[in-house]
Amino acid sequence: MNDREALVSELVGDRADTWDLTGLIPAEPLRKLGEAGLLCGELPEQYGGLGLSSLDNGRFTAHVGSLCSSLRSVMTSQGMAAWTIQRLGSAQQRAGHLPRLTSGTLAAVGFSEPEAGSDLSAISTEIRPDGEDVVVDGRKVWVTAAHYAHLLVIFGRYGDGAAAVLVPADAPGVTVERVADPMGCRAAGHAGIRLDSVRLPRDHVLGGAGAALTMLVTAALSYGRMSVAWGCVGILRACLAAASRHAKSREQFGRPLAQHQLIGGHLADLLVAEQTATRVCEHASHRWDEGSPDMVTAAVLAKHVGATQAAAAAATAVQVLASAGASDGHVVARAYRDAKLMEIIEGSNELCRLMLAQHALSVSG
């Protein structure tokens, strides 16, 4: 275990169950991880980041995901915000805002709206120039980490194109309302955001304003999909470890569960799922680090494989542990709920399959 993993293991300890039940991660571990640059590990050192490769950051993300998917979700949100500012921001915007994300400021990214989920082309949030300012009006839903965030990265319509704008969470006209009792990742701070005539200096609009919405959103979502994919590897490892421990220690019909062939088959399935997701994530991170033209598709593939494998594996782990794992807050019970959300966020299973089908058609000649 490296220093990064040791720190997050110490901060989480045995508290993930409590965080899940209370729906809240305390401020102290978020502050410490943020100040250590661990919530957006790929950010270059010049901005106070660690400059990790996608592969190294992915492996760290998997470790966080194995401990607490809610914390990993906050990490995904912070990383997406940093990636968006890094990719779309001007040099001045990068220098002004990125160091904040490695010194304790928490950020959230708003895509989805009441009428714009998988179809982000239906986004109606408006970023309207008004003299030296811009005015933002709209509504975002299910924004991960918004409850904790000091800074909101909001995507919306901008003239004939689109833009991302940096909105302080305490700006006049901003209302953040927590999602009540989410099914999974209960402590990830999911919230809805209302933006009522929020007036901001025009330099809060990131560079690239007026570009096609798809291009702007894809930049942020690709990072998010990589992070979710590696987080699913963590869920798989937690399920495999819990199911294996239980199968070795629990006896039925005079022998450990692990010696019953059907249970052994479940354990084999869990191992195959974990190894499959890991290899696909490693492939995607290699493409990311190489700047390969197929990095976007590789990220979609990794997210889809990771999420589907994690959801199926979590159900298998609950089956192996039976009543022992059915208590609310137990690691496999959490995994069962958390993994299902992974099949929805950052591109649903169905949307991922459509994108992969389009890729298959494009390469088939």
TrEMBL record:
InterPro entries associated with the record: Acyl-CoA_Oxase/DH_mid-dom, Acyl-CoA_Oxase/DH_mid-dom_sf, AcylCo_DH-like_C, AcylCo_DH/oxidase_C, AcylCoA_DH/ox_N, AcylCoA_DH/ox_N_sf, AcylCoA_DH/oxidase_NM_dom_sf
Coiled coil regions, renumbered to chain: none
GO annotation (BP), single: fatty acid beta-oxidation using acyl-CoA dehydrogenase
GO MF annotations, alphabetized: acyl-CoA dehydrogenase activity; flavin adenine dinucleotide binding
This protein's UniProt keywords: FAD, Flavoprotein, Oxidoreductase
Record keyword Ion transport present: no
Signal sequence interval, chain numbering: none
Domain Acyl-CoA oxidase/dehydrogenase middle: 108-198
Domain Acyl-CoA dehydrogenase/oxidase N-terminal: 7-104
Alphabetized Gene3D superfamilies for the sequence: Acyl-CoA dehydrogenase/oxidase, N-terminal domain, Butyryl-CoA Dehydrogenase, subunit A, domain 2, Butyryl-CoA Dehydrogenase, subunit A, domain 3
Residues covered by the Acyl-CoA dehydrogenase/oxidase C-terminal domain: 217-360
Keyword presence, Metal-binding: no
Cofactor: FAD
Family per record: Belongs to the acyl-CoA dehydrogenase family.
Name under which the protein is recorded: Acyl-CoA dehydrogenase
Phylogenetic lineage: Bacteria, Bacillati, Actinomycetota, Actinomycetes, Kitasatosporales
Gene: cuv4
